[in-house]
Amino acid sequence: MVRVVLLALLLSSCAALPGQTGPGQNVPVQTIPTGTPDAATAKAKLAALVAQAPASLNGYERSCDKGETCVFGQPWLDVDGDGCDQRSQVLARDLADVVRKEGRCSVTSGTLKDPYTGETITSVAKIQIDHVVPLAEMWRSGAAGWDVGRRATAANDLRNLVAVQGKVNQSKGDKTPDKWMPPNTGYACSYARIYVGVKADYALTTTASERTALERALSSCA
Known about the structure:
Elements (H helix, E strand, L loop, with lengths): L1 H12 L25 H10 L37 H9 L1 E5 L6 E7 L6 E2 L5 E5 L3 H6 L7 H8 L5 E5 H7 L15 H14 L6 H11 L4
Antiparallel strand pairs: 1-2, 2-3, 4-5
Helix pairs in contact: 2-7, 2-8, 7-8
């Protein structure tokens, strides 16, 4: 009996603190880029995607360091010419209480309700910008045949960019939804809507397993 009580105390001490969540939490987060299709439209677009085996990653090189191919162009372009690159645009869009460097676009502080974990992030240094449809997946599903200008446009498309916790973004890597979904199940519907919208708009292909995972996520939409 004493052991049972001690175990219960230990488990309660490991519970999430207020404002924190563990894996598998269901926390609604309203981070959805403008231009994302609604659930019904996303389901129709998903059904219309061409299904085929993914191509190889031969020729894919994201880095733009000297001597490297840089197949998606330089990262974080200033697409609309307003002096703010896409990274700054996403941070300003997705964070609350944003503070910018004086006279500059760079975001120096703000608060993120991380859609992937449901946690609150208060350090910009711990935030990364995720390509919901990873660039490597774009390459495998059609972008290998594009010119670099179209690839650069896709890489900087705000509809495919979301500010998230850096650690969870690293864990995702270039995985597709059949291999990885946000730990916060409350974001599954939104994630699938973004993912399908981008794939459809760029006429990218899907696989049977990816389609199944996306159908499952879209079925969670209210």
